[in-house]
Amino acid sequence: MTSHSSAEQEQPASAPSRGDDASVADDADSEIDDEELDNWLVPTYKPKFYSKRPMKKALTAPWGLLVSNADVAKLKTGFKSQSMDHKWDFLVEDPDKNGNTSIHIIRTWCREECWIIHLVPASDDHDGGSAKIESITWEGNKAIGRCDAEQAKKEAVILLRGWLRCEFATLPQYAPGVFYNPKAYTKLNTE
């Protein structure tokens, strides 16, 4: 049996970057334009791209969680998956005139928004953070059922800690079993 990890296999020195003459020539016949390519590469929320699958039953609850400067930087950086294996996108909306922004947590394979974290600048009397999560919006009509605000917050925190490496030092560590815990969901009436 031949190994796929044979030492004799030639490895490319580096992949061509976007805009490299070789990559542009290779893609000359591509039907994908730059705007569409940016939809896949840039961690910015683009409503026209993601509005195809809006939340069926958006629920919003206040949060008021003070966020450290380091965590704010991580949240505002976001993450755009490059592979279906990544499963989640963390897309950042452009801030409004007051500096408010939202981070959309989206399931990649179906482009469904699952949570939206609403981030606002902290007031002058804050203790150590430059922003706070003012509120959270989550899908209240999941196939598994409906969870309350506390469960939605825990699930968002688990994902933000795992993917963006946010610390949220004032919150407890949640066990992995908390995520999509069936006991935390109420079965919806399907009638």
From TrEMBL:
<feature type="region of interest" description="Disordered">
    <location>
        <begin position="1"/>
        <end position="37"/>
    </location>
</feature>
<feature type="compositionally biased region" description="Polar residues">
    <location>
        <begin position="1"/>
        <end position="14"/>
    </location>
</feature>
<feature type="compositionally biased region" description="Acidic residues">
    <location>
        <begin position="23"/>
        <end position="37"/>
    </location>
</feature>
<protein>
    <submittedName>
        <fullName>Uncharacterized protein</fullName>
    </submittedName>
</protein>
